Amino acid sequence: MTVFEMSDYSLNLQRFPRTGDDSALQAWDAADEYLLQQEIPQGPVFVFNDNFGALTCALVHQGRQVWHISDSLNSQQSAQQNLALNGLDESHVTFVDSMTALPLIPAVVLIKVPKTLALLEFQLGTLRDVLQPDTVIIGGAKAKDIHNSTLALFERIIGETKTSLAKKKARLIFSRFTVAEMTPRDVAERWPLEGTPYIIHNHANVFSRQSLDIGARFFMRHLPRGLEGEIIDLGCGNGVIGLKALVENPEANVHFVDESWMAVASAQINAETNLPHELSRCRFTVNNVLSGFAPDSYSAVLCNPPFHQQNAITEHVAWQMFRDAFRCLQYGGELRIVANRHLDHDRKLKKLFGNCQVVGSDTKFVVLRSVKLR
Length: 374
Description:
The chain is built from ten helices and 18 strands. By secondary structure, the protein is an alpha/beta fold. α7 (240-248) links the parallel β10 (228-234) and β11. α9 runs parallel beside α10 (345-353). The mean pLDDT is 92.
């Protein structure tokens, strides 16, 4: 088979959202190219975890009908922007979020293997409902990210599985649907939140799904109290910060916002089961940071910002969170964050807000507070 690069498609593929130096990062990897070198039959193609739409764009460029399946709103929007950037017809793509049932029987399934095994197990489990014995199933990832446990999941849930040789440090997984029956397993985690009567539910792709994140644990000791108006738990994950904010601020509404459907669904379950009498004060939104939120309107934004996007270490996501918070806060409103001490978020906040106060610190974390002033 002819070996080619992604550039052979004459596509202009970029990472979105673009901020600062992140725009220079490549929007595909060797596993994408390896997947596209495979001969696949005609028919509907399911593509899982296509972070920036590289596979989706290349397949649409071939004239294929694609179902883009992801837990990330940002991944969907990246694919949409790359389709538009290359003049490709978005009507050839159906976008499906992780909490929606798969709509039809695919001819081909391409899976960019996620680092979270629980997410892979969840996705393979949902696939079983729509697979046929002749469905072509191919996974791809960096060779170092494909482990015996990865292959064991394919074998247990799908069936006969083998791997390719490594090429450009990428490897493929070929699987055939031969497991006729399997007892379904709930991959969600549940655990008691220390110091509270709450049981916390975590879907498969929620950060720190098996226990309370140590940064969140420290942050919960330093949240604002007695605020009125609207509070945002930005990047809410399972929603533990927002739950605490509901209790500490009984006159305020709390917005749980994340770009992951599983995160927002987990936060909603946790509010419904642990604080059902407070649901009228809760709002749940899958969103790209605070895009579309009204300016000058919110009393506080609470955030545990990430310092990576997919596999790339970057500060641009945190910077976008800070800028969106500044835009959306009312005058006198505050952004309060927790972060590792070695990150220079205090410098960024001083530059943006003109002020930054240390609310709490220990040997690993710092809680910072900046107020939007006139």
